Amino acid sequence: MIDYRQARQIVLAQARSFGKEDVRLEEAFGRVLAGSVFADRDYPPFNRATMDGYALRYTDLKSGICRFRVAETIFAGARPAGSIRTGECYKIMTGAAVPGDADIVIRREDVKEGGAGQEAGPESGGGGEIELKVTEPEPWRSFLNIARQGEDLRAGDRVIDGPCRCEPAVMGLLATLGRTTATVACLPRVSLLTTGDEVVEPGAPVSPVQIRNSNRWMLEAALRKEGIGLAGCGHAADHPGLLKETLQGSLSADILILTGGVSAGDADHVPAVLQELGVRQLFHKIAMRPGKPTWCGVGPAGGMVFALPGNPFSCLVNFVLLIAPYIHACWGLSAAAPVGLPLGIARAGRTPLDEFFPARLEGSPARLMPVSLNGSGDIRLGMQANVLALHPAGSGDLPAGAEVACYSFV
To answer: Could you give the count of Cα atoms lying within 13 Å of 332 in the half-sphere of its Cβ?
Structure first.
């Protein structure tokens, strides 16, 4: 029996690429970029006004000029019709390109608009005057309130280096760079097989000694949050022959997940049948609760096989600790490290093994509040939890404020 850290490292060591593909930008949401991305031009692509105000020459300010005639109004996306001379300025809007003959933007709040009874420039053109307000000390400097061309990125700069998810900021960046397609990591082909004579599908008649198949739906939901659909899904009774027949068509998947039938009972046939079919065992049993009977191996075609205990929370713990990190590693993403956070209340030790429990991160300062769970078979699955927290083996009772490691829930 190995601990969960060893199990995780063994699994991650098996990571292999599922390949790459090009998809349209609108299909890239949530996918993992599989190539570097470069800037197509300077960013900003021009000297950009960062404030509504007036663009003028800094040398005019240094020479003591404090009243300026508005020569023209410049809106975002527009170019000036002319140029300015000494004592003149442009009225300019946030985001507009600052003409080359101006090198400072004075905020609208820092001027007195209008002079000699005139407004400071009609919206469509020039005319009118502005007068600078007196401030101490004078804040003026060259390129004040101007984002200079190329200060964020230069044409050809590497913008994204290495795999990353196409989250909102990345999607916005790709669009800004003019990308209409993205090279992303391929999704794995995942098959799911639940087992057990006592398990029936939702909607089917259920006897007093049967349970409904929640694992299928829970695991499919976890996979869908990763953007992955099921390539195959089935259920097998607790019979070696039937199990073997059902499994033979599933071992070509990149990932095969089974639930149930991995413990030491008379009906737990999964490990033996998998080995009969040529699946090479990596480990069987992890020193943790829940999920101790977990079995893992590599199929004849190189696909990973995760055989999980049948209890729902055991399945969820294994997905968070082993399956999701394996998928991420295959995509080239780094495994997320646990975060240490304080417990909001004391928690009693219940097992000599590493114990994972559902918790909710809340409050300021942040703290972890354990979520009620009546064992790994509890169908509520820690429903209000957003992290999976670790009560370490041999730590005894944990007092309020004790720091514990936790993993984000899928």
So the answer is: 19
Q: Quick one: tokens of 246?
A: 């059902």
Output the furthest CA–CA distance in the chain (Å, rounded). Answer: 99
Contacts 24+ apart (CB under 8 A), 62-67: 66/131, 66/132, 67/115, 67/129, 67/130, 67/131, 67/132
Q: Of 274, 206, 207, 189, nearest to 240 (Cα)?
A: 274
Residue 119, pLDDT above cutoff 50 = no
Long-range contacts formed by 57-65: CB under 8 A, 24+ apart? 57/84, 57/86, 57/101, 57/102, 57/103, 57/104, 58/103, 58/104, 58/140, 58/141, 58/142, 60/86, 60/87, 61/104, 61/132, 61/140
User: What is the C-alpha separation between 2 and 288, in angstroms, rounded?
Assistant: 9
Closest by CA to 344, choosing from 358, 374, 365, is 365
φ and ψ of 42, to 5 deg: -65, 150
Q: Which two tokens stand for residue 192?
A: 């799911």
Question: Residue 252 contacts by C-beta under 8 Å, 6 or more apart in sequence?
Answer: 189, 299, 301, 303
Query: CB count, 10 Å around CB of 208?
Result: 4
The token pair at 289 is 């609760």
| Residue 266 CB coordination number (10 Å) | 6
- Residue in this structure with the two tokens 């780094």, named with its chain if needed: 334
For residue 410, the model assigns a pLDDT of: 61
pLDDT of 64-86, one tens digit each? 999 999 999 999 999 999 999 99
| 160-174 as b/e: b if 16+ CB within 10 A | eeebbbbeeebbebb
pLDDT at 94: 98
User: Do 322 and 296 touch, CB atoms closer than 8 A?
Assistant: yes
Residues 6+ apart with CB under 8 A from 245: none
Say how far apart CA 74 and CA 169 lie, in whole Å.
29
Burial level of 207, CB count in 10 A (0-12/13-18/19+)? exposed
Give dist(CA 256, CA 326) in Å, integer. Answer: 12
- Residue indicated by tokens 């570097």: 36
Encoding tokens for residue 220? Answer: 């499919």
d(CA 282, CA 260): 18
Pairing of strands 181-185, 20-24: antiparallel
DSSP-derived secondary structure letter, 44? S
Q: How far apart, in whole angstroms, are the C-alpha atoms of residue 138 and residue 58? A: 13
| CA 7/CA 43 separation, integer angstroms | 45
